[in-house]
Amino acid sequence: MRGRGEVPVHSVHGFQTDSILFIRSILSHFIRVVSDTNFTTSDNSQPATPHRRRVRYSGKNPRHFEEKYKERDPQRYANTVAKVLASGKTPAGMHRPIMVAEILEALAPKPGELAVDCTLGYGGHAKEILARLQPGGRLLGLDADPVELPKTEARLRTAGFGPEVFLAVRSNFAGLPQVLAGLNLSGADCILADLGVSSMQLDDPSRGFSMKTDGPLDMRMNPQRGFPASALLQKISPGALVKLLQENADEPRASELSGALAKKSFSTTTELAKTIRAALPRLGKEGWDLTVRRVFQALRIAVNDEFSALDMLLRHLPACLNPGGRVAILTFHSGEDRRVKKAFEAGLRDELYADIAHEVIRPTPEECHDNPRSSPAKLRWARKVVS
Q1: What confidence tens digit (pLDDT) does each residue in 115-125 have?
Q2: Is 90 exceeded by the pLDDT of residue 202?
Q3: Which helix (H) or strand (E) holds 382?
Q4: Which residues, in sequence order, are bridge partners of residue 384?
Q5: Distance linking the first and last C-alpha atoms of the chain
Q6: Element (H, E) at 320
Q7: In terms of DSSP bridges, do strands 138-143 and 166-170 run parallel, antiparallel, or are they unpaired?
Q8: ∠ Cα 76 80 84 (to 5°)
Q9: CA-to-CA separations, 245 to 138, 220, 258, 275, 308, in angstroms, rounded
Q10: CA–CA dist 209, 222 (Å, integer)
Q11: Are 248 and 254 spatial neighbours (Cβ–Cβ below 8 Å)?
């Protein structure tokens, strides 16, 4: 018998303890047994690797590229991508095609024709051109980037463009004549070359194109070829660097910068940017940012030999176009635009082209507002003679 209000007791191995302590002791014993036990599978293999949760999305505006998985998965997170686009920014891992309407007007692609996108990138221009080539038309997409090319090919396949209408070729645009010859094609009816760096490359810190995030100082369009920007700076002389900065970026302070950068070792993008700012202490933030951008641009052009590639493309363009064929070139640098303008004017004088754009075409104010990366773009076009 027990009195009213007394706590019931149990006998465990001869010890008297109350119910609560008894339950706690059993749970504690069970936890120790589980933690000390080495579970193995029936074939005596090692324990399975514990599951790791994916890194959480860091709030509404994550700073790091790797954390922006919502933007990089547009099908799953369409609302997030829409909000980023509405803010006038480009979602991580994406690229917004520039001056689409103007390019389509210049190229005038028609059903059954053959088009070439010399710089496939994210495939935005190619997708619009492909839609206008049907039925019966085809598009060749060239790109030197082995990282982005397979992604874009898969993206266009998903959009419904099979191998009978779209072929992706890994090649620099300077190799256009060889690509056409290898496919037994005499020429193309439409040729597009967008000479800008894609947003996927700029935003990915591992590619080393941007000063915004820390990454290896690389800048190669094709990471499998050539030498990174860090190697270029380590071996270049001060005099050669002055010439490079002036020719590739119209840098007014090239002489002041050359001593701080030439024959120096830089492993990351932020390390280079910091040194540039330190070399010009009186500029202030706006001046620093502009100078850093120009230096990065000059190095990128040199690392990828972009001017030589453009000169070769312009030299062979007339032979790569069918009679009456159209070409449109989108540039983002005064040195590029000068080359295109002079080549088209020379082709018009030599009666290779029947007509050219006599004035440069720029993006509308609305597009510049919606996509600030379009602001420096310049478009020129040419049309080959019929006979």
Answers
A1: 999 999 999 99
A2: no
A3: strand 378-384
A4: 353
A5: 118
A6: helix 306-320
A7: parallel
A8: 135
A9: 40, 18, 9, 16, 16
A10: 12
A11: no
Which among 306, 373, 366 is positioned nearest to 340, based on CA atoms? 306
Q: Which of 210, 202, 218 is nearest to 90 (CA)?
A: 202
CB 307 within 8 A of CB 335: yes
How does 187-197 read in b/e, with b if 16+ C-beta sit within 10 Å?
bbbbbbbbbbb
Maximum CA extent, the chain: 119
Query: How many other CB atoms sit within 10 Å of the CB of residue 157?
Result: 13
If you count DSSP H runs as helices and E runs as strands, how many of each does the chain have, helices first?
15, 9
Q: Which helix or strand (DSSP H or E) is residue 314 part of?
A: helix 306-320
Q: Does residue 262 contact residue 236 with C-beta atoms inside 8 Å?
A: yes
Residues recorded for the chain: 387
| Mean pLDDT, residues 21-48 taken together | 52
Angle at 342 between CA 313 and CA 386, to 5 degrees: 70
**Rounded distance, CA 125 to CA 240, Å?**
37
Amino acid 298: pLDDT: 95
Q: Which of 131, 64, 107, 122 is nearest to 371 (CA)?
A: 122
Query: ω into residue 135 within 30 of 0, thus cis?
Result: yes
Run of H or E residues at 350: none
DSSP state letter for 267 = -
* Unique residue bearing structure tokens 């480009």: 90
Alpha-carbon gap, residue 87 to 98, rounded angstroms: 17
Between 383 and 65, whose confidence is greater?
A: 383
CA torsion through residues 203, 207, 210, 211, sign: positive
Amino acid at 180: L
pLDDT attached to residue 104: 98
